[in-house]
């Protein structure tokens, strides 16, 4: 896959050619260089068989995460994947025995208690994946309520954990799944929404933390070819970005999959394309433009970068974004 130029390099080029006062340009450049040093640390965990590896491979168009096909789980330790400024931590699945679960839980706790160079928690966001094809979520609730939430620290626990129910297409043993249009029919939608509410209630009762779970299907790739089509991956990506600190969000621009087929099928509850653009634009307005007196011109300054970000957001829903001008006008109007 041929990647576009690094988003930060593109933004630096935009700044160099921007027709603004030199002192304001220097402020923006300092802010940009500060942002470039930021890394996102995303921990992905869940019970064995929930689809962690398939989710990683679909979201970020990589085959680094191994997918278990045999009797033994593929991931026996926390694996670390460096995707430019995005650091993925893929933890072992729980549910394969008390001794193994205790060892894996210990590793997760140690990681959650690590701090970065700034003294803040190393892990920015924990994505917990549940298996939507089973009613037995006891292992997952134990992981969330007893291992993850107690070790998140701080007051913003809701903002550092995202719970997603995978394999939505198999939630009722494949019934009420519209295979032609790759989406759930009404009985399955009702079932999944009840499951979301049940998960929310169980976590709230156990921890006092209010979580907003979502459901999706990661799909399946074999030899680089899509065998099963994903559903609601754009919604999942939107929630991941939304729950990432603004100063770190731009790292996703260079790591999100550009395969339109991955993002094509979603619910219509939100315009995820627009929401993801707004999330990226918030970084520009809040973190890059901080301290610079340029008003609403920030969109015009980053024309090439805006076009790159627009293509990324467009790919997330299988759409096509036009010119940078149209993109930034829609954001900053």
Q: What's the helical proportion of residues?
A: 40-55%
Q: Which strand order does the major sheet show?
A: 2-3-1-4-5-8
Largest β-sheet summary? 6 strands, mixed
Which class do the helix and strand fractions yield?
A: alpha/beta
Q: How far apart are the termini?
A: 35 Å
How would you state the average pLDDT, rounded? 86
Question: How would you describe this protein?
Answer:
- With 333 residues, the protein is an alpha/beta fold.
- The chain has twelve helices and ten strands.
- The chain has helices at 7-17, 22-36, 52-60, 98-112, 138-148, 186-207, 233-242, 260-263, 272-288, 298-301, 303-316, 324-332, and strands at 40-46, 79-83, 86-90, 125-131, 161-166, 177-178, 183-184, 214-215, 220-222, 225-228.
- A hairpin with a 2-residue loop joins strand 2 and strand 3 (86-90).
- The longest helix is centred in the middle third of the chain and has 22 residues, at 186-207.
- The protein starts with 6 loop residues before the first helix and ends with a helix.
- The model is unreliable at 66-75 and 319-325 (pLDDT under 50).
């Amino acid at each position: 896959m041929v990647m576009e130029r690094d988003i930060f390099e593109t933004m630096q080029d935009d700044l160099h050619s921007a027709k603004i006062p030199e002192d304001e340009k220097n402020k923006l450049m300092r802010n940009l260089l500060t942002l470039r040093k930021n890394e996102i640390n995303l921990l992905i965990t869940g019970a064995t068989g929930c689809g962690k590896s398939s989710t990683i491979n679909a979201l970020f168009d990589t085959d680094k995460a191994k997918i278990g096909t045999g009797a033994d789980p593929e991931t026996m330790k926390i694996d670390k994947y460096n995707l430019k400024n995005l650091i993925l931590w893929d933890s072992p699945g729980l549910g394969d025995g008390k001794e193994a679960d205790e060892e894996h839980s210990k590793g997760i706790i140690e990681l959650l208690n690590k701090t970065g160079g700034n003294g803040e928690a190393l892990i920015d966001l924990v994505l917990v994946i549940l298996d939507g094809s089973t009613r037995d979520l006891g292992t997952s609730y134990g992981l969330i309520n007893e291992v993850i939430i107690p070790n998140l620290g701080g007051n913003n626990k809701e903002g550092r954990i995202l719970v997603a129910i995978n394999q939505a297409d198999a939630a009722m043993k494949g019934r009420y799944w519209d295979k032609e249009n790759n989406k759930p029919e009404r009985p399955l939608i009702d079932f999944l929404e009840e499951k979301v509410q049940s998960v929310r209630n169980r976590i709230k009762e156990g921890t006092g933390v209010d979580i907003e779970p979502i459901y999706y299907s990661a799909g399946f790739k074999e030899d680089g070819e899509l065998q099963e089509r994903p559903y609601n991956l754009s919604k999942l990506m939107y929630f991941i970005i939304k729950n990432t600190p603004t100063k770190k969000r731009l790292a996703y621009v260079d790591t999100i999959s550009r395969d339109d087929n991955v993002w094509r099928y979603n619910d219509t509850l939100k315009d995820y394309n627009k929401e993801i653009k707004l999330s990226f634009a918030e970084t520009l307005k809040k973190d890059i433009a901080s301290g610079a007196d340029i008003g609403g011109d920030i969109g015009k300054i980053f024309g090439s970068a805006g076009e790159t970000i627009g293509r990324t957001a467009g790919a997330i829903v299988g759409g096509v974004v036009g010119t940078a001008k149209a993109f930034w006008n829609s954001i900053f109007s």
